[in-house]
Amino acid sequence: MSRQIEYRDALREAMSEEMRRDPRVFLMGEEVAQYNGAYKVSRGMLEEFGPQRVVDTPISETGFTGLAVGAAMMGLRPIIEFMSWSFSLVAADQILNNAPKMLYMSGGQFGCPIVFRGNNGAGGQLGSTHSWCVESLYANVPGLKMAIPFDPYDAKGLLKTAVRDDNPVFFLESERLLSVKGEVPEEEYLVPFQQALIRRPGADCTIVSFGRPLYFCLEAAQALAEDGIECEVIDGRTIRPLDIETIVESVRKTNYCVVVDQSWPFASVGAEIASQVHERCFDDLDNHVARVHADDVPPPYAYNLEQEMLPNARKICEAVRSVTYNA
Amino acid sequence: MTTRPAADENLAAKLPDETLRKWLRDMLLIREFEVRTMQAYQNRLIGGFCHIYVGQEAVAVGALAALEPTDPIITAYRDHGHALARGMDPKYCMAEMFGRIGGCAKGKGGSMHMFDKPHHMYGGHGIVGAQCPLAAGLAFARKYTDEVIENRASTGVAMCFLGDGALNQGAFHEAMNLAGVLHLPVIYVVENNGYAMGTSVARGTTMAHELTAKAAAYGIDATSLDGMDVMEVYNGMKPIVDRCRRSVQPAFVEARTYRYKGHSMSDPRKYRTKDEEQQYEAQDPIEKLAGFLMSERKFAEADYDSLAKAVRTQVREARQWTDLSPPPDIEELYTDVYADAWGPYHGTSLPLMMKDTQQE
Question: Nearest CA of chain B to the CA of A262: how many Å?
Answer without folding.
Answer: 25
